[in-house]
Amino acid sequence: MTEKNGKSHMPKDSFFFEKVVPASLVFMGLVMLGLIIFAAGVLLGFIKF
Amino acid sequence: MSVNHVLPFLSTLIMLVFTVSVLRRYIVRRQAHFLFWGIGLAMFGAGSFAEAYLALAWNKWIFFAWYLFGAALNAAWLGHGTLYLLVRRKWVNVVTGILIVGSLFAGYLMLQAMPKLDEAVFTIDKIVSEQYGTKVLEEGESAPAGALTITTTYRGEEVTAVRGLLPLGTPVRLTTPFFNIYGLITLVGGAIYSAFLFWRKRVMPNRVIANVLIAAGALLIGFASTLTRLGYGEYLYVGELFSAILMYAGFQLAAKPQPHEMIESVPAPASAD
């Protein structure tokens, strides 16, 4: 993929991009870690099915 | 026919359109990440279709497809596509080799398990995710009402277990967490990382949102699967449907041409075109 010098930018002072997006990235990162720990728990036998 | 019978068919339809769309891009552009995404999406679709089928009737080869493609492999292949997009190093080819060999080995183990399936426990009254595993009962724990149990020797101990389609100690089940952890890290982690890169540079808001949608879609199915394993299977099909919708929407949004795009080369991680 290529892009130009004048590529599109995020809108300035956007609550969505300044607050919602980073918060959702952090939240999803934490959920991902939780799921990884859960899967590892299954693998290691701490969590039984 | 209930809503739970219809939802997996809808997911299958969305994944079919999604798969064709991605594989068409691979045919045009010959970029490896499209191929792996396409294979992973086809596996996701096969898993959804198998789930839909198994909500209506039993077929052991459909179960084979459901477990191997739907439960074990699809996340890893999807995530590997993202790895190919983000990391252009030779070691990724080594990981590709490991993924292929690992997937073939899982297929072999699944074939080994086929003659041992406990088909008598299958019922269309429960979703397949709730009845594939044989679960050892802890001391003092009682089996759910109506569940079939077995008392057997497992790892040198006499145990009572709720019977499932795959008997206790089926080796293929040990492979699933490896594939799913790898898929989770590469697919979700890759999408979050890509969104973060665009966000930090304050460019291409469509790809920030696209990657957020892809990560959310992938997490949703992971979360719904986990809930199923904890005994809350009623959310699985709706989770799968929304997962398919979110990831497809993310892909389409990332692929949408922007007014100022093109000309000067700049690496653009986790884009869908």
Please render the helix and strand layout as text.
The complex is a heterodimer of chains A (49) and B (273).
Chain A: H1 15-44
Chain B: H1 3-29, H2 32-54, H3 60-86, H4 91-113, E1 135-136, E2 149-154, E3 157-162, H5 172-201, H6 205-229, H7 236-255
Antiparallel strand pairs in B: 1-3, 2-3
Helix pairs in contact in B: 1-2, 1-7, 2-3, 3-4, 3-5, 5-6, 6-7
Explain this structure to me?
- The complex is a heterodimer of chains A (49) and B (273).
- Chain A has one helix spanning 15-44.
- Chain A is mainly alpha-helical and 49 residues long.
- The model of chain A is unreliable at 1-5 (pLDDT under 50).
- With 273 residues, chain B is mainly alpha-helical.
- Chain B has helices at residues 3-29, 32-54, 60-86, 91-113, 172-201, 205-229, 236-255, and strands at 135-136, 149-154, 157-162.
- In chain B, strands 1-3-2 form a three-stranded antiparallel beta sheet, with no helix packed on it.
- The chains are: A mainly alpha (49), B mainly alpha (273).
- Chain A binds chain B through residues 1-11, 17, 21-22, 24-25, 28-29, 31-32, 35-36, 38-40, 42-43, 48-49, and chain B through 133, 135-136, 138, 174, 177-178, 180-181, 184-185, 188-189, 192, 195-196, 199, 202-206, 208-209, 212, 215-216, 219, 222-223, 226, 229, 258-266, 268, 271, 273.
Q: Which structural class matches the secondary elements of chain B?
A: mainly alpha
> What gross morphology of chain B would you assign?
globular
User: What share of the residues of chain A lie within helices?
Assistant: 55-70%
Following the backbone from N to C, one meets helices and strands of chain A in this order, namely H
Q: How far from one another are the termini of chain B?
A: 39 Å
Computed CA radius of gyration of chain B, to the nearest angstrom? 20 Å
Tally of individual helices of chain A: 1
Tell me the total number of β-strands of chain A: 0
Mean pLDDT across every amino acid position of chain A: 82
